[in-house]
Amino acid sequence: MQRPQHGGDRLWAAQVAGCQPEAVLDFSANLNPLGPPAWVRDFIQSHHHLLIEYPDPQYRELRRHLAAFHHLEPAWIWPGNGAAHLLTWVGRELAALGTVTLVTPAFGDHWRALQAFGAQVQPWHLPWEQKQVAFPADKHGLLLSNPHNPTGYLFTRDQLLDALENRPLVVVDESFMDFVPPAQDQSLIPVLERFPHLVILRSLTKFYALAGLRLGYVLAHPDRIARYREWDAPWSVNGLAAALGGLLIQEQDFAQRTWDWLAQERPRLQEGLATIPGLHPYPSAANFLLVKSAQPVPDLQQRLLVKHHILIRDTLSYPELGPNYFRVAVRLAQDNQRLLQALGCEGVTS
Ligand SMILES: Cc1ncc(COP(=O)(O)O)c(C=O)c1O
Predict the structure, then answer these.
(1) For a substitution probing ligand 1, which of 107, 146, 208 has the most ligand atoms within 8 Å of its CB?
(2) What ligand 1 atom has the least distance to the C-alpha of 6?
(3) CB of 220 closer than 6 A to ligand 1?
(4) Residues 94, 108 within the same domain
(5) 32/207 Cα distance (integer angstroms)
(6) 17/122: higher pLDDT
(7) End of a domain among 203, 227, 250?
């Protein structure tokens, strides 16, 4: 079986580990361990008729809810089958500009979306270990994620406003922004209406732990949204996801519980990792941590799988990082503890 390009490939992990996929403790996919909210299971059971009918091709109800939540008009929003699906259309637009600056290391799907349409990708390596980060002074289109995957770095709104100057198109993938509590939120959605050349992507699959259901949305000027709708296949969001999306974003209690959990568990996990000789975790604004390892990770990953049934995300698919980094999701306290024990037991010094 081929080594996965993304996190969450339990079938591959189970084959390496020699166990059932359900027995794998997965730190490779960055999903909220508190989710989905408890009522989602009942909702799915009582709304199975939504799988029989065609969804509204205009997704009026869902867009109305999302728009109200973000204080925008529905014409500024279009839903997709996960943020990854919508990356295809922003990739097409960016590629039409010719050269595109891509903040690297980049989520693999950013590369896919740009290369699928023949973009000239100009990688710009994010110096995430430094305090001062300034974007290159070029005039190309720009694609980045904020918080940044895989480093967890959070660009400030001011940094991004600077980057918006002199560029024809800027796409900010905010798939992990929901994990940032309101006091630290750096989303560009509140300023979107001022910048017709700004596009924002959001995902509901991570924060609400519905990666299999698939739901994301793009926010942009209505002319651009109209273009994406022309390019899109009809009904690309399934009826259940469309009905759930508008309810999920109103889940204030769930959001608060998530911020509380993360505020407690992320520093604990980071500190725990830092005490293991040979490991260096970086600070993160998201629900995952990037870790530098003195030992090559593929071998460590294999031992964690075979001996402990634990899956960590290697960074081989991020060419700038190579074999000496890994990424782990922050999970519930007892799972994080299991990871720390397993890593301590394997030993990571070179
Ligand atoms: C930066 C980034 N954007 C988008 C996605 C995909 O999100 P979705 O599940 O909504 O397609 C991921 C998944 O890991 C991601 O890391």
Answers:
(1) 107
(2) 14
(3) no
(4) yes
(5) 5
(6) 122
(7) 250
Task: Answer yes or no: is the C-beta of 149 below 6 A from any ligand 1 atom.
Answer: yes
Q: Are 312 and 29 in contact (CB under 8 A)?
A: no
Which single residue is written with the structure tokens 């009522």?
39
**Residue 22: CATH number of its domain:** 3.90.1150.10
- On whether both 166 and 178 belong to a single domain, the answer is yes
pTM: 0.96
CA angle 308/277/106 to nearest 5° reads 75
Ligand 1 centroid, distance to 203 Cα (angstroms) = 7
Whether ligand 1 lies within 6 angstroms of the CB of 82 is answered as yes
pLDDT in tens, 263-303: 999 999 999 999 999 999 999 999 999 999 999 999 999 99
CA dihedral 261, 264, 268, 271 (to 10 degrees): 130
Q: Is 81 in the pocket of ligand 1 (CB under 6 A)?
A: no
Three-class DSSP category at 70: helix
The finding on whether 151 has its CB within 6 A of some atom of ligand 1 is no
CB burial class (10 A; 0-12, 13-18, 19+) of residue 60?
exposed
Looking at the structure, do residues 320 and 222 belong to the same domain, yes or no? Answer: no
